[in-house]
């Protein structure tokens, strides 16, 4: 037993002392509330089969997807734990049509947008799924809850995801860096196991050449995406083709990209010009994490963090990973604008 183990709480408190000495400590309390929800989700995901949590809950979420019991459970856990932390003013969830305003008596100064259980269509076949969140400060000058919710990624205070895979890991990003904490069920704590995560450089030994996209939609891709993917599959000269890896669960695909390098893509298509991934609670937090780890994000034209959200559930094309590869994609979009 490591009696000096670095838990998330210790880590965040030390970061507060070093970087935000005058801070109230509310962000630490908020993160602990998130951790409780994540631990409970991890437990529910692990025992879903035994607890017969599979199957439909009979209701559907804002996007009309059939909601599974784990979706409902995860959403309630996030909302209840955040509400009872007295640190949140208003929230937005993938599972709720409208924002969730915390009752006045329990309101705090933070805004949280989250996808409580992303990739849930993979639950029944035991593929890795995850939770994604972004945390903003409530703007001092904002009166309307919706203006608190619709903030760009440049205003994020922190963002993270929990990956429910062969182990449960929390990846937490602040402007001071990205750190990975693995859940140790024997003590019920997330322990710092991957300090200062950086996305590998392409020329580093650990930097793998992986492109991650659902090739099933190739018929509908823009010319820019078609040309980019072709250059990975049929590179010029002596360069070897890139490997294709695609789980179809964003947390799994982005976590692999963070660990091994490469490029994750969910582009807009002729059928769906903004793609499928939600801007506010999927693209923005994941882009923040990848950029804080030294990678790059884009919607095909600029960093996702620069995009001003206009609606809670709006979708956005997303490209994440190696800086030089994202630059190539943006150049291709300059040459072949969307829809060509
Ligand atoms: P497709 C899961 O349903 C999800 O929202 C993301 O986690 C994932 O990246 C994407 O959809 C997969 O979508 O169209 O490739 O099945």
Distance between the termini: 59 Å
Low-confidence stretches: none
Gyration radius (Cα, Å) is: 20 Å
- Tally of DSSP helical segments: 8
For the largest beta-sheet, the strand count, sense and barrel status come to:
8 strands, mixed
Mean pLDDT: 92
User: Tell me, what is the CATH class of the largest domain?
Assistant: Alpha Beta
CATH superfamily of the largest domain: Fructose-1,6-Bisphosphatase, subunit A, domain 1
Secondary-structure-derived class = alpha+beta
Domain Fructose-1-6-bisphosphatase class I N-terminal: 6-194
Catalytic activity: beta-D-fructose 1,6-bisphosphate + H2O = beta-D-fructose 6-phosphate + phosphate
Main location: other
EC number: 3.1.3.11
Question: How would you describe this protein?
Answer:
- The chain has 340 residues and is of the alpha+beta class.
- The protein folds into 2 domains: 8-194, Fructose-1,6-Bisphosphatase, subunit A, domain 1 (Fructose-1,6-Bisphosphatase, Chain A, domain 1, 2-Layer Sandwich), CATH 3.30.540; 210-335, D-Maltodextrin-Binding Protein, domain 2.
- It has helices spanning 8-19, 26-47, 69-83, 145-149, 223-233, 250-260, 279-292, 323-335; strands at 56-60, 66-68, 88-93, 100-101, 110-118, 129-137, 156-164, 168-174, 177-184, 189-194, 210-212, 243-244, 263-266, 296-298, 318-321.
- β8 (168-174) and β9 form a beta hairpin.
- The longest helix has 22 residues, at 26-47.
- It is globular and about 60 Å long.
- It starts with 7 loop residues before the first helix and ends in a 5-residue tail after the last helix.
- The mean pLDDT is 92.
- It binds 6-O-phosphono-alpha-D-fructofuranose.
- The site of 6-O-phosphono-alpha-D-fructofuranose (P6P) has 10 residues, from α6.
- Keywords: Calcium, Carbohydrate metabolism, Cell junction, Cytoplasm, Hydrolase, Magnesium, Metal-binding, Nucleus, Phosphoprotein.
- This is Fructose-1,6-bisphosphatase isozyme 2.
- It is found in: Cell junction; Cytoplasm, Myofibril, Sarcomere, Z line; Nucleus.
- GO terms for molecular function: fructose 1,6-bisphosphate 1-phosphatase activity; metal ion binding.
């Amino acid at each position: 037993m490591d009696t000096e183990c670095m838990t998330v709480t210790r880590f965040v408190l030390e970061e507060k002392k070093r970087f935000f000495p005058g801070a109230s400590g509310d962000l630490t309390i908020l993160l602990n509330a998130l951790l409780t929800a994540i631990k409970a989700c991890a437990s529910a995901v692990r025992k879903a089969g035994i607890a017969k949590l599979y199957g439909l809950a009979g209701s559907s979420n804002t996007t009309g997807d059939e909601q599974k019991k784990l979706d409902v459970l995860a959403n309630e856990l996030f909302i209840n734990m955040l509400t009872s932390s007295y640190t949140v003013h208003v929230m937005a969830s993938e599972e709720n049509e409208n924002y969730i305003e915390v009752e006045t008596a329990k309101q705090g100064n933070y805004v949280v947008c989250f996808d409580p259980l992303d990739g849930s269509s993979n639950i029944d076949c035991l593929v890795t799924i995850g939770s994604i969140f972004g945390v903003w400060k409530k703007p001092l000058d904002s009166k309307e809850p919706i203006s608190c919710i619709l903030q760009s990624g440049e205003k994020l205070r922190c963002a993270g995801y929990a990956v429910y895979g062969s182990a449960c890991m929390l990846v937490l990003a602040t402007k001071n860096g990205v750190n990975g904490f693995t859940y140790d069920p024997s003590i019920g704590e997330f322990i710092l196991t991957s300090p200062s995560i950086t996305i590998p450089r392409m020329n580093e030994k650990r930097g793998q050449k992986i492109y991650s996209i659902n090739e099933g939609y190739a018929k509908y891709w823009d010319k820019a995406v078609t040309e980019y993917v072709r250059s990975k599959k049929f590179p010029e000269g002596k360069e070897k083709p890139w490997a294709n890896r695609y789980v179809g669960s964003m947390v799994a695909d982005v976590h692999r990209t963070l660990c091994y390098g490469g490029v994750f893509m969910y582009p807009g298509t002729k059928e769906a010009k903004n793609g499928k991934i939600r801007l506010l609670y999927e693209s923005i937090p994941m882009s923040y994490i990848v950029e804080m780890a030294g990678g790059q994000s884009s919607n095909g034209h600029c960093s996702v963090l620069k995009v001003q959200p206009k609606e809670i559930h709006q979708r956005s094309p997303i490209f994440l990973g190696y800086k030089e590869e994202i630059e190539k994609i943006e150049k291709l979009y300059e040459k072949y604008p969307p829809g060509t």
